[in-house]
Amino acid sequence: MIRSRGAPEKSSIRNPKPRQIAELTFTGERERESQSGVAGHHSTTMLRLDLLLLSILLLSTPVLSDVVLSKVDRRVDLTSHIVRITSTLKVENVGKGPASEVIIVFPERQAKKLAYVTAATNAGKGKVKGPTTSLPVSIANAKGLPPSLEAYSVSLPEPLRKGESISVDVLTAFTHSLKPFPEKISQADIQLLVFEDSAHYLSPYAVQAQSLTIKLPDSRVESYTRLENSKYQNSEIKYGPYENLPPFSYTPIIVHFESNHPFAVAKELVREIEISHWGNVQVTDNYDMVHEGSEIKGEFSRLDFQARPHQRGASAIKNLIASLPPRAHSVYYRDEIGNISTSRLWGDLKKTELIIEPRYPMFGGWRTAFTIGYGLPLGDFLFESEGKRFLNVTFGSPINNIVVDTLIVKVVLPEGSEFVSVAAPFPVTQWQETKFSHLDVVGRPVIVLQKTNVVPEHNQYFQVYYKFSSISMLREPMMLITGFFLFFVACIVYTHLDMSISKSSPSYLAKLQWEDVLSTIQQIEKLINKCLAVQDRLEGSLRDLSRSGDVQACKAARKSADGTLKELSKEVRPLLSFLQASPQAGHILPKVEELVAKERELEDKLMAKHTTVVDCYEKKVAGREVENRIASQQQKIASLRQEVDDLLEFIDEL
Amino acid sequence: MAPKAITSPVPESFYPTLALLMLSVGLVFTASFFIYATTTTRRNLSIAREVTTGAVASVFLGFGSLFLLLASGVYI
Fold first, then answer.
1. Tens digits of per-residue pLDDT, A457-509?
2. What contacts 24+ positions apart, CB below 8 Å, involve A429-436?
3. Which residues does chain B have within 8 Å of residue A492's beta carbon, measured at their own beta carbons?
4. Whole-angstrom Cα distance, residue B69 to residue A438?
5. Cα-Cα-Cα-Cα dihedral of A261, A262, A267, A271, to 10°?
6. Starting at the edge strand that comes first in sequence, how are the strands of the sheet with A320-324 ordered?
7. Which of B6, B55, B69 is closest, CB to CB, to A384?
8. A 484-523 residues with CB < 8 A to B
9. Model pTM above 0.90
């Protein structure tokens, strides 16, 4: 058995059911250990083999020698299921030329799980920390470096001259790096995880001084690789300080510890963000969630879980906390079955917090799928600058501490948006689709962004730019108006159409004739109403005369009234003769004739009264005299008017 | 140039009031349209009056139903 330096010493794995033989799958290899001295140890054959190859290759490769890391402090945070490593590198240029970049490397296995890498530097020397500026990190060409290593290059703000040094903070986040071991546990067992890394910082530069601190959750540590200068205190394992190590030095260490942090992993998350210019941004998140800790074997006892949740199900996912933006409204939480009522929502000015509990507590290997939806006010997220509108929303999931394997963000823009472009702070794959939603003719443009391996650090704002003319907002009311108008046109067409089947039957002909009679009567009615209106105007002119004493205007009004009335009576005559001729109008004819006659009488009386009053005014007769003279006329006029109105009413009700 | 926030052209708190107002005016015009269409005889129907009443009614009903949809949460 090839032993590379730093062979791990293992204490026995404490387990409620002691086992002689531990079966483990690490890299797909199985090994049975039958030595009674060591009850189970890791099968690292494959691991050690490729580390040996790595070290052989490393020793035979030229190294970049103009930069030296004078001090490296690494902090590994294992408190959640995302492994976050913060490395503070003090880079010193000992070569001849200026150094403009720092190369950081990861072994290929680790690089596949790298979700997020960022670098920053603090300007200022010594204890005074200046403002942090973030540095661009890009994938570097790994030529000249040993294979099975992936390299990233951090560009320094200005090239480092000979003898100068700068401090760079590199933050990396890895997903799926904590392996549950044992892989299957029962409900009462504790969840133990294995983390592997290197005690020496793997770097293409020589490292003068370095130290490593691993922060563990506040539970116990099962075992960890003991090297020189390693100690465990206060839930932290410290390795170091190590001095003057050559480049590419690598010492594998393994930490086996307990963690009850919920391993919430969303296999797929589809976020749909729909914008309506009438005031709302609707976000719908569809989750497909799985618990990726130790799988549960055996049965799940609900009684045990509810009686003692911390002993029977400490590592289960009992609830998830989501931080939604402030002023979120109409929040819903449902799945395929329907609404899930186990949720709580409260909000303040900074955020809206939603605590959701799945329908059952999720144990290892269990899956669930649900949807969270909420609406946001438009003014918080949509802005306009330089003729283009842009939407400013967060990219990732609002749920805290969740890893998303595939994240798809769909931004649905209103119909009529053009020249869509996206500005994102990290690389994403994007393409365009169309969605047909309310009142759509051509469909709404949808820009789809996809990213794999997403951690909460990716929850940053991204912008979608597009052009939209304000007139296009009228498109939707225009569609509704057109719809209603077509309905009215259909009604008009229906009333004008003659849809009877037989055009020559006697009942149909009788109906036609009756319609003619009715229409004639309606026309007569209209004319009589016009006459009455003229008479009212005449009376009005009389009242004006009594107020202003202007006789000439009164006479003029009289003249025009005379003319109109003559015309109207001319129009009435042919209608009346038609009625007299038609047989159907028999029972109404007398009434109509009476109406016309009475109306004419009324006219005459009114004219007479008018003449009297005008004469009186011309002769400057006193007011009371005038009234006496026209008293009887007035009475008759009033009664006649009443009769005319009654007749009109009667005819109306036909 | 600082970006300017875009909001709806009509303040959102007015949506229910506007919906009610426009719909009632629209329904009044619809009623007038139908009364005219049913009480006058076919010969006396004037198309101009029918079409104008229908057009005005459809404008008010269109806007009224738009604001009704917006007020009830279906953001079109």
1. 999 999 999 999 988 888 889 999 999 999 999 999 988 887 777 777 888 88
2. A435/A410
3. 37, 47, 50-51, 54
4. 10
5. -100
6. A320-324, A352-356, A343-347
7. B6
8. 484-485, 487-489, 491-492, 495-496, 498, 515-516, 518-519, 522-523
9. no
In this structure, what token pair is assigned to residue A88? 């503070």
Q: Omega of the bond prior to A182 within 30 degrees of 0, cis?
A: yes
Q: Closest Cα to residue A324, out of A380, A403, A408?
A: A380
Q: Give the span between the Cα atoms of B28 and B37, in whole angstroms.
A: 14
Torsion angles phi and psi, residue A467, rounded to 5: -110, 135
Residue A357: Cβ within 10 Å count: 17
When scoring A383, A437, A481 by the number of chain B Cβ atoms within 10 A, the one with the most, hence best to mutate, is: A481
Q: Which amino acid is at B25?
A: V
**H helical segments located in A410-505:** 475-496
For residue A338, is it left (φ>0), alpha (ψ between -120 and 50) or beta? left
Interface test with B, best of A484, A495, A508, A520 (most B CBs within 10 A): A484
| pLDDT > 50? residue A29 | no
Q: What is the CA radius of gyration of chain A?
A: 47
Of A401, A500, A358, nearest in space to A173 by CA: A401
Residues of B whose CB is below 8 A from A473: 9
**CA separation for the pair B68, B62 (Å, rounded):** 10
Measured between beta carbons, the chain B residues lying within 8 angstroms of A515 are: 41-43
Determine the Cα–Cα distance for residues A287 and A404; give it in Å rounded to an integer: 9
All residues of chain A having their beta carbon less than 8 Å from the beta carbon of residue B3 are 383-385, 390
Convert A296-345 into a string of H (helix), E (strand) and C (coil).
ECCCCCHHHHHHCCCCCCCCCECCEEEEECCCCEEEEEECCCCECCCEEE
Residue A131 pLDDT class (50, 70, 90 cuts): low
Amino acid found at A319 = N
Distance CA A438, CA A442 (A): 11
CA nearest to A451, candidates A189, A116, A27, A63: A116
Q: Which of A33-42, A117-126, A392-401 has the highest mean pLDDT?
A: A392-401
Beta-carbon neighbour count of residue A446 at 10 Å? Answer: 19
* ipTM tops the 0.85 cut: yes
Residue A409 and residue A428: Cα distance in Å, rounded?
10
Q: Which of B38, B43, B55 sits opposite A485 (nearest CB)?
A: B55
**Partners of A116 in the beta sheet?**
A173
A45 CB-contact burial (10 Å; exposed 0-12 / middle 13-18 / buried 19+): middle
- Across chain A, mean pLDDT equals 82
Facing residue for A476 by CB, picked from B10, B44, B66? B66
Residue A61 has pLDDT above 90, yes or no: no
* A378: closest chain B residue by CA: B7
From the number of C-beta atoms within 10 Å of its C-beta (0-12, 13-18, 19+), residue A364 rates as: buried
**3-class SS at A455?**
coil
Show Cβ contacts of residue B22 under 8 Å, excluding neighbours closer than 6 positions.
B60, B61, B63, B64, B67
Among A461, A579, A599, smallest CA distance to A521 is for: A579
Distance of CA B28 to the CA centre of its chain: 10
Residue B35 contacts A where some CB pair is shorter than 8 Å: no
Instruction: Single out the residue of A264, A254, A297 nearest to residue A13, CA to CA.
Output: A254
